Structures are given as C-alpha cells and as structure tokens.
Amino acid sequence: MRVAAFTDLTGPDGVSILDRPTPEPGPGEAVVDVEAASINRHDLWILEGADTRYDDDDLPFVSGLDLAGEVRSVGDGVTGVSPGDRVVLCPNQTCGACQFCYEGPENLCESFTLFHGGLAEAALVDASRLVTLPENVSMTHAAALPTAYMTAYHMLRRADVGPTDLVFVPGATGGVGVASIQLAGVLGAETVGTSSSQAKLDRMEDIGLDHAIHSTDPDEIESAVRDVGTPDAVLNHLGGEYTQLGLGVLRRGGRMVVCGGTAGRYSEVDVPGLFLKHKQLIGSTMGTQPDLETLVDLVADGSLVPEIDEIYPLEETGAAFEAMQNRDSVGKLVVTT
Fold first, then answer.
1. Which of 67, 150, 226, 252 could form a Cys-Cys staple with 37, CB 3.0–4.6 A?
2. Beta-bridge mates of residue 4
3. Residue 264: which CATH number?
4. 230-253 pLDDT, tens per residue?
C-alpha cells in the first residue's frame, strides 16, 4: 500500500509517497481501506518540526488523525464492525484503566493520546473506535469531522450553548473556528467571528456567520463585539492576547472555553474581572466518541454540512500541507486515496 510519510521535518517538502506492507489486524483491531483523510494543524506542527514529541528518530512517520473508509478485515474479538462497513475513526486513544476512563468523559484520560496513520491507503486501528456511517454521509464529509468538528462540538457543550445565545469566536476561519460557527448555528445560537481576511469572512457569512469583524487588533475587535452585543460564550482556540479579549467582552456568568494556543502559550488575565463577574474559564481538548456519533447523525439528517475547502489525491499531500501553511483555506483540506 502507499502512504504519505513525513521523511523530513522541514515542512511540506518533507512529505514522500512510500510503499509499505498492508497491515493485518490483531485481536480487537481492524484494517480500514482509507478513502478520505483530513489534515489538521496538529499534523503540520509535526511536519514542521515544531512538535518536540517527534524527531528524526521517528521518521518515516505517517500522520493523519481523521480518516474514513471501508473495513477490510477485523481481528479476533471484534463485534462492533464487519468487513464492508463504512466507518469513520474516532482518533482518541485512552488507557481504559485510569479514574477518568472509568468515570468519564474519556478525553480526561491521564494517558490521552491521538491516533496517527490515516494518510495511507489502509490503516490499522482499534476497532472499538470506529463509528459506522449511514449511506448518505460521504467519506469526505465524515473525514472532516473527528478533530475540528468534534473539538468544536465539545466546546459548545462545555459552554452550555443553546438557542438565542451569542457566541464569539476569535479566528473564525480556521478549522475549529469554521466548525464552531457552523455548529453554534445548528444549536440556534447567534455568532460573531473575526479574521484578518475579508475574503474569508465573506465565505464565512455564506456558511452562516452572523456578524463578521475584519480585524486582528484586540481593541478594535472588543469595540466591534460590544456593538453587536454581550456574548454568552466565547470559543477560544487562539490563546495569547485573545483570552483576555474574550473574557473582557463576556457577560456576567458567561463561559469561555479554550482549546488551543496558536496565538500564544501564555495569557495575561484580569483576575478580579474574572471572579467579581463570575465568569468561567474552561479548558477543553478534543471531544468524545459520543460527540462524534452525534456529529455523524447531524450530517445524516442534513443539519450539518462540513465545510470542505479542497480535496487532494494522496500523491499531493505535500500540496495540501502547503495550503494549510499558507493559510489559504476556509474549512477542511481532505486527502483521498
């Protein structure tokens, strides 16, 4: 089988198409013939050498968290799926033995990690992590769901967002940002989003963004958000200076959920403003397998159409990462085999 492997941690030029033996499933495992895999900034950080958990000793490395395809074969003890089933993988990997695995939710696991290996023609996976797909859910749409949409949906649940709420999403044109805007709309909420690109904001308004703010200046953004209203919730995948920005515009008793730090690892926070106004600052990582199952149902009933920016063949995986690196896209970039 062919794989799009990272052979050099220097950026998109470090992707090579290699041949590897097709895996065989062991007990509890399944082999999936991958039809579509979406890429995420997590993959790009590894490829750029920015993720210190990976180095040249791990090469060649096959990344890819989010895959959808058809079950080729299953190992002993597998009962949930069968060869021929259409599936999407929940990329969560948990120990199954810690307090948090027993009590839930699963993404609190003390040993929480993520699957890698979707950028290939076939992938060996934990069969219990496969979610079956209805016939009317396409492989490309399914492959877009696990990381960006699962993360956004879990954040919205943590923020307790419901109909008529006002939700503020700084950086609304990235993967999690787009998913947050779409899913907030599904829940009946009103949305405010920002971007440095007016062209991207125009696309976001077509997707469902209610109030677009073309700025990266925190003072300008704060003023523009206040002109719209007082957010009930903020979904923050940027961190840095956007944490205090979000807290500053948030209503009394409002909730900010943080899932990333691409704009800065550290944030300076007005602590009295946080506790005197009973605001909540909540950390969140990925989502749960039931979240993914809910998302599949939303796609199946037509409530959600994941935004796909572009589809690339496996041999052009490097070009997909180049588009992500250049921040050219709105929505998901999907690789097909």
1. 67
2. 17
3. 3.40.50.720
4. 999 999 999 999 999 999 999 999
φ, ψ of residue 74 in degrees (nearest 5): -135, 155
What one-letter code names the amino acid at 153?
Y
Q: How far apart are CA 166 and CA 159, in angstroms?
A: 11
Dihedral sign of CA atoms 124, 108, 98, 266 in order: positive
- pTM greater than 0.90 (yes/no): yes
**Cα separation of 299 and 111, whole Å?**
31
What are the start-end ranges of the E strands in 50-135?
Answer: 66-74, 86-89, 92-93, 113-114, 122-126, 130-132
**DSSP label at residue 119:** S
What burial class does residue 294 get, using C-beta atoms within 10 Å of its C-beta: 0-12 exposed, 13-18 middle, 19+ buried? middle
Q: Are residues 214 and 331 in the same domain?
A: no
Contact 67, 36 (CB under 8 A): yes
Token pair for 316: 């052009």
- Provide the CATH number for the domain around residue 100: 3.90.180.10
CB-based contact 211:191 (threshold 8 Å): yes
Tokens (6 digits) for 91: 């990329």
Residue 223 structural domain: 149-283
Asked whether the beta carbons of 309 and 130 are under 8 A apart, the reply is no
Summarize pLDDT for 278-294 with one digit per residue, the tens: 999 999 999 999 999 99
Both tokens assigned to 247: 């807290």
Nearest Cα neighbor of 148 from 41, 240, 239, 255 is 41
